From TrEMBL:
It comes from Brachypodius melanocephalos (black-headed bulbul). One of its GO terms (cellular component) is nucleus. GO terms for molecular function: zinc ion binding. Residues 1-35 form the HIT-type domain. Required for box C/D snoRNAs accumulation involved in snoRNA processing, snoRNA transport to the nucleolus and ribosome biogenesis. Belongs to the BCD1 family. This is Box C/D snoRNA protein 1.
Length: 239
């Protein structure tokens, strides 16, 4: 058993291939590795190791995707006039702010998650926002972020040594221990080929709206918070 190293292993996790001896050790390994125990149907398999079982698995996976897509296309919400008006309004208001907002069909995770709204009285967006801290393998979802809030203020509860939550501060210790001048905020540029991924560097002193102008956004903004000395694999446009 790779968890307790005492008993003979009886089970093997379909997800991470770890050996376990009992239900207790299975639960421990799932908790320690954040493993869900479900086989990864899209994991890479080399040509030499590819068997008829892999082919059958791929075929069933594609069938499942087809059924899910068909069910989403038939969903009543897709054809709801209210939903169409709301999405049209969001895209139109974003276009007025020089932001190209693209929405996905119902059934996609980002479409289901998105909680972005536009307040006509205040003439302001309240964005659904995702923050990713790649050096700590952490991500956080924010809802109702006003578009006039600066990126620096948005990040304060996470990486500010004084104002951040103690639990979050401990998890993001590499960020809080680094000088604030080393922190960079990047946003992936959409509509580029997979072998040419580039990022825009945003200005933490400016508002969220100012930083999003001239950008293409799919459903909601996703910001990558990185450190200058560790972002070598994330190429900023123009570099």
């Amino acid at each position: 058993c790779e968890t307790c190293s005492k008993e003979e292993a009886k089970y093997r996790c379909p997800r991470c291939m770890k050996y376990s001896c009992s239900l207790l050790c299975v639960k421990k390994h799932k908790l320690a590795l954040s493993c869900n125990g479900v086989r990864d149907k899209t994991a890479f398999v080399s040509v030499n190791d590819f068997t008829d079982l892999n082919l059958l698995s791929d075929y069933r996976f594609l069938e499942d995707v087809g059924r899910t897509a068909d069910a989403a296309a038939r969903h009543c919400i897709v054809h709801s006039p209210a939903t169409k008006r709301l999405l049209y309004c969001l895209r139109n208001k974003a276009r007025g702010c020089n932001i190209e907002l693209k929405t996905l069909p119902v059934g996609f995770t980002k479409r289901r998650e998105n909680s972005t709204t536009f307040n006509s009285v205040e003439n302001k967006f309240y964005w659904h926002l995702k923050l990713i801290f790649p050096h700590c393998h952490a991500e956080y979802t924010l809802k109702g972020v006003p578009d006039d809030k600066t990126l620096a203020d948005i990040l304060k509860p996470y990486i500010d040594p004084v104002e951040s939550d103690p639990v979050v501060c401990q998890r993001l210790k590499i960020y809080t221990a680094s000088p604030q001048s080393d922190v960079r905020i990047l946003m992936k540029i959409e509509n580029r080929s997979r072998n040419s991924v580039r990022y825009n560097e945003l200005d933490a002193r400016r508002s969220l709206l100012d930083n999003l102008k001239g950008k293409v956004i799919i459903e909601y903004p996703t910001l990558f918070v990185v450190l200058k000395t560790l972002k070598s694999d994330m190429v900023v446009l123009g570099q």
